[in-house]
Input
Amino acid sequence: MNHNLDEMALPQSSRNQELEVISQRIFEPLFDVERFVLDGKVIDNGIDYHCELKYKGNVTGFGFNFQLKSKEKNEPLKNGTYSKSFELLNIQYLINNTHPAFYGFYIVESDTFYYEYLNDFIANLKTNNTNWEKQQNHTLNFYKKLDKQAVDKIYDVVLARGMLFRKINSSLVDRLAHSHLSSNIIIDFNDNVTSEIEIIKIVEKYGFELINQSNWNKVIELHSKTLHSSTFSAKYNMIVGLAYYYKSDYLTSLKYLKNAIREKANLVIELQNHLIFIISSIKLLLLMITKEEYDSTISNLEPDKHITFHVEIDSAIEIAKEKLFQTENLRVEEFEDCINSIISNIEASLQVKLRAKSELLIYEGNIAIQQYSKHICRINAFEVSLFVNYEYRKKINDELQLLFTNIEQEYFGLFEEIKTTNNYFAFYYLLMHKQKYDFLKYSTFEILKLAKESIIIDYSDNYEKILINLDSCFDYFNKIGHIENQIFAKSIKYEILHYLKRYELAKTLIAELEDTVVLIDIKSLKEQLEFIKNGGTNHQMLQELLDDKINNPKEKIEQLRNELIKLDEIEKNINVNKVDHYQVTLFPIGNFIVPKNNLEKFYKIFEIKKSKLREQFKYMFELGVVPVVNTYVYPIRQEGPLEGNLEYKGFESFLNMYNARKKFFENKFYRLNNK
Output
């Protein structure tokens, strides 16, 4: 037998086999033993290595597959990548294996290992060719180097994918355990796995708490992950309905709330009341019921410790809006009594009391500004028609300073109280109304000055601060998805921009408001927007007030004053027989006669109807005492000068004086001492 190896017939070694061994020897050291267990496959069915992850020294069961290819040398393409062709059957096999899979490509000449994630490869195939599965071979362009950083990334990808499939398996088990319920499994784009059962449990357990924290967006987010195929409970439907209500999606809200009310017997009385209240409020807002029908429904709610108080606050606010301008002192006792009773009620929750305190302070701020406008208009009108009344000015100035100081202190105290509760909704709600109050206050100060000689104060920094605070309020309400408060914040900002004559910015803002209001499609919001667009801003209404109370009456007052001067001129040539007349002082005009035989006409001119007051005047006349009548006041209810010039309330008061003087002349009740 020949023992010369050179002359023996032996199997020839394959260079491809050698390349395969080389690539394996380069491949294995890349994966450290602390995190990976590598299992090389003897039979190659498209997988060269099945690998398993370790986690903190423990094997996890999370595996992945690697298919290795190698080449002696390979020229890169123009884009710097290295191409390698793979059969469709190999790609399909790796997909069927369910584990994450990777392709490796080793080039001997450059001693470089490249890799690609199977999912990325398939995604690229689908993007470039929707019929890729009908093509038998596909080219993969490698460019990612298989180095330490790549191995770290592979570890993270496989770990995340392993956790995903674990969650899927767990959800499948849960579905078997709850086969009587809908149990769709949901996987989002971040590979989070949940089931409708889990979502329902979370919403029912934490939903009301999320709503109370103004986090209704989270409720909607959770609900959106369901496939809406379950028969939800009354509690679940109510929570979702409330979330959409505070999102201002009223139609969607009504859908879920109606589903909830069908099974309202499963809810406690407080939730039943809340449910009926919200449904009724939406229907009223959408004009599906009348105000009378709404009031009837709400009045029949059974008393509870929550919604009943909110209903009372809402009713009190409506009463205040209706009656605020119907009283001389601008106060509405029904509103104040209701709100104060809630604040002092031990049954009312802290959140209810905070709302009541906020509404009361907003009300007090509005009154303060209205009282300022009212008093200043009176002062200005008085000084136009008569003279500067420094006494009245000082009195009003002191009153107003104290009023505004108290309002500021109350706002500060309530903000501090709200902060201790971490109630961000209540904080930003009050902050937004405080910005409106500040703007109305400063702009009113500028338009209606207390004294014509007042030092001009620059409020521009104040307005900029208000705009910044309004943006903060809007950002918060935008974050939590409360559209009505977003609209309110923008409407205040629009008024400020319009007042500051930043018309382009105001125009842009009003366009945004119109888009939002059209989207919500609520009649009352449309009407409010139309109102401020058409002259309903504070400064425009103040200008109208100035025109009505001061500017327009100026010409009329001058005309009437000239007429009174003519009457005085005529009376200079009239001789008066004092024996047949009584004497009366008409404040602030002077002394006049009243014919003794025409006392009834005197009573009629001033509408003196009460017998006791008539007897008082007659008794004074007969005693020779000269009674006083303040002609600013009509009709006369009391003898005397009253508060003198302080009774002057503007043009109407001047008109009262003019009419009294003219009627005296017409009835020959002439002025004394006019020569």
Notes: The chain has a mean pLDDT of 83. The chain is about 60% helix and 10% strand. The first helix runs from residue 15 to 27.
